[in-house]
Amino acid sequence: MTGDKSQARADRDRRGRIATAAAFFIQGLCFAVVVTRVSVLQDKFHLSNGQLTIVLLLVPVIAGLGSVACGPLAARLGSRWVLRIVQPVVCLTVAAIGFASTLPELYLAVGTFGLFVGAVDATMNMQGAVTEKRYGYSIITAFYGLWSMAGILGGLWNAAAGKLGLSLGAAFAIAGACGLAGSAASGRFLFSKAEDVAPVSEAAAKAAGAAWVSTSWTVSIAATRRCWSSSDSASRTAPISSAERRSSSAIRPLTASAPRSRSCDQPARRCSTSACACVSFSTSTEVASRARPSATARRSSAICRSCSSRASCCLYRSGPRG
């Protein structure tokens, strides 16, 4: 039962991701089709440079108003329904710009285009945010990659339409019809307001990230232990002399008041670390295999487990203490 629910969620996430990608693609296509034929529009309406600047300025200014206006609607209805309404309008206004015959009609069509382009920009990014939340990792860059790809295809389509001798209205209408069909087909798979939740997949991704951090710290601590153990072993590569072996029976337990040799002061600062017990164990094993310590020496090694990792070695070599 759990496996069926997980599979159903994965299928739903995949369909929503494809629908969101389609929204980005259609937006890039429609925008590029209009922008790449600006020079044709200027020649058709005999626009001066000042008039052309006004036409081009209408799109970003009014688009900002559209983005702000659709915010409350998306919060109330969900970005899915707003996007399903405004994106088809963008496709229709693309055709309206192509078929405009007077300058007021052009201004009206371009203004409407900018208004709804802003609304689409806001709502498709909301869908992208929901998709990222459901997957648990960044996806938005892939959507913008599709937007850019669609822009290239829109420019290529305009070039092909010019070669075919299509009118501006026909070229814009064909591109708008393709976008309209894609929006109608994919819009029903967009994520609804109720699906804008933190799903199991995101929780699993966060848990995996926490596990990775925990594992990385464990590996770092283990590497530190190995480094310390290797440095301790390297400091004891010289054979233990017979005098040191004879002095091992005179070793007494290390206490807080007992004096330490100078070489043990620095390692003693590692007493509170988790690596002390591991390194001390290897020290105790090495000493036992090479010198066969007496009961007193074994007791000293046990104290070393809760003390410095090198205290056992230093204490062993320092000889009897008075």
Can you walk me through this structure?
With 322 residues, the chain is mainly α. It has 2 domains: 204 residues, Up-down Bundle (Growth Hormone, Chain: A); 91 residues, no CATH class. It is 76% helix and 0% strand. It is built from 12 helices and no strands. The longest helix has 35 residues. It starts with a helix and ends with a helix. The C terminus is likely disordered.
Please sum up the structure shown.
By secondary structure, this protein is mostly helical. The protein has helices at 2-35, 38-45, 49-77, 79-99, 103-135, 140-164, 168-186, 200-234, 242-247, 275-291, 295-305, 311-318.
Our estimate of the beta-strand percent is under 5%
Number of strands: 0
Ends distance: 73 Å
CATH superfamily heading of the largest domain: MFS general substrate transporter like domains
Mean pLDDT: 73
Q: So what's the oligomer here? A: single chain
CATH C-level class of the largest domain is Mainly Alpha
The CATH topology label of the largest domain is Growth Hormone, Chain: A
Nearest-angstrom radius of gyration? 37 Å
Outline the biggest β-sheet: none
| Structural class label | mainly alpha
Second rung of CATH, namely the architecture of the largest domain: Up-down Bundle
**If helices are DSSP runs of H or I spanning 4 or more residues, what is the number of helices?**
12
Uncertain spans: 207-238, 243-322
